[in-house]
Write a structure and sequence with these properties.
- The chain has 440 residues and is of the alpha/beta class.
- It is built from 12 helices and 20 strands.
- The strands form 6 sheets. A 5-stranded parallel beta sheet has the order 2-1-3-4-5, sandwiched between helices.
- Helix 11 packs parallel to helix 12.
Length: 440
C-alpha cells in the first residue's frame, strides 16, 4: 500500500449522482485520502454507478469489471448498487455494494479496507467541498427520491420517496458555492416542484429570518445571490405559476426544464404521468405572456408499450403547438423492475427508432427556426471554455452539457466564468454564433 492511502474514483450517471460523488470525495479528502480519477496507483477504486435503464446498467457493470481487472479492489455505490444482487452476480469479487446517497456506508466500506490517514478535519477541504463540475457552475441538489410511481421508472425503489433538504441548509450551501466563485447554480432533484411537500413546507431559517420550505421561497432566496439560478426537473403543476414572475423580474433565469414524456392521454395514463397536454399548452401560453423570454426544455419517450400511430401523431401535433426550445427524445427501453414491463402491445424496436427519427426531424426544424429569430439580439453569456481560435459560452437558454452553445469565433482575452455581452450573428439547429459587444 502507498504511504498515503489513495482512492481511484469513477462517477457515472446523472447530475444527482454527481452530487453524491462530490459528497463522498469531500469526505475522503477531509480524512486525508488522496484521490485519483483513474484506477492507476490507487489502493482501491470506488465506482458510483447508474442503474436507471438497461444501457446504463451495462455501462456500470462494464466500468466495475474494468476497475476489477485493473485494480482488483473495488467498492460499488450508486443506483445500481441498490440492486446489489445484480452487481454481485456479475462481479462477486467486489469488496462492498451500497445504494445511492449512502455516504456513511461508503466510508465504512473504505475504512474497513484502508484506515483513514488521520481524523477528519473539514479545514483540509474548501468550504464548498470537492466538486466534479468546472469552477464556475455547480449542481445544487435540494431533495432526494420521488413520490411519483411512473410505470417506466424505478427511481423510488432505488432512491426512496421524496426527502427534501431544509431550506436553510440548501441556501447555506448555495452561499458557500457562490463565495467560492460559482457563477451559475443548477437546481436539481427528482421532482423540483414537489420540494418541501414531505416536510409540510415547514419554516426554516436563513440569515436569521424564517422561510417556508417550498420551491417558490427557495427560488426567490437563491435569486438574491450574485449568480444565475437555473431550475431543472420541474413538473408543470399549477403552483409552478408562482415561479414565472420571479423569472420576469430577473431573479432567476427564465428557463424551465420539464420532463413531459408524452402528449397522448392514453399513453400518459399508461405511464402514470400527472399531466394532460391541453392543460400544459394553456399553461405554457400563460407563462409566455407573463415572461416572453421564457425558454422551455423537455424530454419525451416514444415507442412506449401500446403507443399507436395516432398517439405518436398527437405527440407531434403537441410539439408543433408547444414550440419548445430544447427537446430530448428517447426510445422506450424496458427497465428491470418497472411496472411498464407488464404492459401489452410492445412497440417493435425498429418502429421505436423510426419514431425517434421523425420526432427529432420535426424538433430540429422548430429549433432551427427559433434560433434564427435570435440573430441580431444582444444577450449576456457565460464563458465555459477558451480555445485558441474560439470561445465557447452559453446564454440563459442553455444548460451545460445538454443544451446548445454560443460560439465566439476568434481569440479573445476571456476566462471561464466571465459574463460578457454579445450580439448574435448566426444560428444553426442547436448553436448560436456571436461577437462581443459593449455592455447591454
Amino acid at each position: 500500500m502507498t504511504q498515503t492511502a489513495t482512492i481511484g474514483f469513477i462517477s457515472l450517471g446523472c447530475p444527482k449522482a454527481t452530487v453524491d460523488s462530490e459528497r463522498i470525495l469531500t469526505r475522503l479528502r477531509a480524512e486525508g485520502y488522496r484521490i485519483r480519477p483513474t484506477y492507476e496507483d490507487a489502493d482501491l477504486v470506488i465506482v458510483n454507478t447508474c442503474g436507471f435503464i438497461e444501457d446504463a446498467v451495462d455501462e456500470s457493470l462494464e466500468a466495475i469489471g474494468e476497475a476489477l481487472a485493473a485494480n482488483g479492489q473495488v467498492i460499488v455505490t450508486g443506483c445500481l448498487g441498490a440492486r446489489a444482487q445484480v452487481v454481485r452476480e456479475a462481479h462477486p469479487e467486489v469488496l462492498a455494494v451500497t445504494g445511492p446517497d449512502a455516504l456513511e456506508e461508503v466510508m465504512a466500506a473504505v475504512h474497513a479496507q484502508l484506515p483513514a490517514p488521520h481524523d477528519p478535519f473539514m479545514s483540509l477541504v474548501p468550504p464548498q467541498g470537492i466538486r466534479l463540475t468546472p469552477r464556475h457552475y455547480a449542481y445544487l441538489k435540494i431533495s432526494e427520491g420521488c413520490n411519483h410511481r411512473c410505470s417506466f421508472c424505478i427511481i423510488p425503489s432505488l432512491r426512496g420517496d421524496l426527502a427534501s433538504r431544509p431550506i436553510g441548509e440548501v441556501l447555506g450551501e448555495a452561499e458557500r458555492l457562490v463565495e467560492a466563485g460559482v457563477r451559475e447554480l443548477l437546481v436539481i432533484s427528482q421532482d423540483t416542484s414537489a420540494y418541501g411537500l414531505d416536510l409540510r413546507y415547514r419554516l426554516d431559517f436563513w440569515r436569521g429570518r424564517p422561510l417556508k420550505t417550498d420551491t417558490a421561497a427557495l427560488a426567490r432566496a437563491l435569486g438574491s445571490l450574485p449568480a444565475w439560478v437555473r431550475l431543472h426537473y420541474v413538473y408543470p403543476y399549477p403552483h409552478v405559476d408562482a415561479l414565472i414572475p420571479l423569472m420576469a423580474e430577473g431573479l432567476i433565469l427564465p428557463y424551465l426544464d420539464m420532463p413531459l414524456q408524452h402528449a397522448s392521454a392514453p399513453v400518459l395514463r399508461a405511464m402514470r404521468r400527472p399531466a394532460a397536454a391541453e392543460k400544459v399548452l394553456d399553461r405554457l401560453a400563460r407563462w409566455r405572456e407573463q415572461c416572453p423570454q421564457l425558454v422551455l426544455r423537455s424530454t419525451f419517450i416514444v415507442g412506449f408499450p401500446g403507443e399507436s400511430e395516432s398517439d405518436f401523431e398527437q405527440l407531434l401535433d403537441f410539439l408543433r403547438a408547444a414550440r419548445l426550445d430544447r427537446v430530448g427524445c428517447f426510445p422506450y427501453s424496458p427497465v428491470a423492475g418497472a411496472a411498464a414491463n407488464a404492459l401489452p402491445d410492445p412497440v417493435p424496436e425498429g418502429l421505436r427508432k423510426e419514431r425517434v427519427a421523425r420526432f427529432m426531424t420535426l424538433q430540429a426544424e422548430i429549433s432551427r427556426a427559433k434560433l434564427a429569430e435570435r440573430i441580431g439580439q444582444r444577450l449576456t453569456v457565460l464563458v465555459d471554455e477558451v480555445r485558441e481560435a474560439e470561445v465557447i459560452a452559453r446564454s440563459y437558454a442553455d444548460a451545460p452539457e445538454i443544451d446548445g452553445q454560443v460560439i465566439l469565433p476568434g481569440a479573445w482575452e476571456l476566462d471561464p466564468g466571465d459574463f460578457i455581452a454579445v450580439e448574435i450573428t448566426g444560428s444553426g439547429e442547436h448553436d448560436l454564433w456571436a461577437s462581443p459587444v459593449e455592455g447591454l
